[in-house]
Amino acid sequence: MRELIYRAVEDFYKLVIGDVLIGYHFEKFRDPEVLEHHLERLTTFWEMQLTGETTATIDKPFHLIFTHLQLRIHPGELGRWIMLFHQTLDKFQRDLDHPNIKLMNDLWKDRIALFEERFRSHPQMFRKD
Predict the structure, then answer these.
(1) What are the tens digits of pLDDT across the range 19-40?
(2) Residue whose C-alpha is closest to residue 48's, from 12, 93, 5, 9
(3) What does the DSSP 8-state code read for residue 99?
(4) Is residue 71 within 8 Å of 62, Cβ to Cβ?
(5) Does pTM surpass 0.70?
């Protein structure tokens, strides 16, 4: 399962790094070493979200809201992130012949919806301008 999660996260980052609307938030991940470390960490995060456990060693805790609070995103950027993540998962499901992929994607989208609720419940995450 971890390999599938890694591939989906990697595909998502390939998409968002170059995105015209939110790509600027991902500039530091243009460095392959920075990106690789981040992909491993995100794979661990999503593995925990989707399976309830991880096969990786966690070097520091995940602080989802605090980490993203520092970005001060525009409200529409959250919607763009969600749309691109769904697009990545839908393409992944179409292109990959794996018995667990639909179940994984459905669970993943449920988790994304939960995170969207959490983000929107913290209005200080968003820019006012």
Answers:
(1) 999 999 999 999 999 999 999 9
(2) 5
(3) T
(4) no
(5) yes
